[in-house]
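Budget justification aside, the reviewers requested a transparent look at the raw inputs and outputs of the sequence design task funded under Objective 1. We therefore reproduce one unedited record. The lines immediately below are the structure tokens for a 124-residue chain.
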């Protein structure tokens, strides 16, 4: 129930994920309950730029996109971002942006937590 409420609170942000889903060529969808998450397998992140360039996976609200170059623990990494989104309902995108501008991609506290808890690999 709590997970559903958090999902609804974050819905405006999650819905912005529709554009990246369509652009990335989704071919598989899996629904998860805890945290409430839509997991798409996609063909390519050809459209990505800036810090997202060369991304293997991405999370937008409660949507996870897994690209063709996904490695071990990348899914766990993205799941941590969904949990962060639940921890800071509605304001997470702003907090993430603030951290990104202040500390860059790898050293922002949300990425730092996701990389260390998931033991996923950072490659430039
Ligand atoms: Zn991340």
């Amino acid at each position: 129930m709590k997970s559903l409420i958090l999902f609804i609170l974050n819905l405006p942000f999650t819905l912005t994920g529709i554009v990246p889903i369509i652009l990335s060529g989704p071919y598989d969808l899996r629904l998860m309950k805890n945290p409430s998450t839509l997991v798409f397998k996609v063909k390519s992140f050809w459209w990505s730029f800036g810090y997202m360039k060369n991304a293997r996976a991405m999370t937008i609200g409660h949507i996870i996109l897994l690209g063709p170059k996904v490695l071990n623990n990348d899914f766990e990494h993205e799941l941590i971002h969904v949990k962060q989104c639940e921890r800071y309902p509605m304001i997470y995108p702003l907090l993430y942006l603030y951290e990104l501008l202040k500390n860059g991609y790898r050293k922002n506290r949300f990425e730092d937590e996701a990389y260390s808890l998931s033991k996923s690999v950072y490659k430039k």
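The pocket of zinc ion is lined by residues 77, 81, 111, 114 (CB under 6 Å). The chain has six helices and four strands. Computational costs for records of this kind are itemized in the attached budget.
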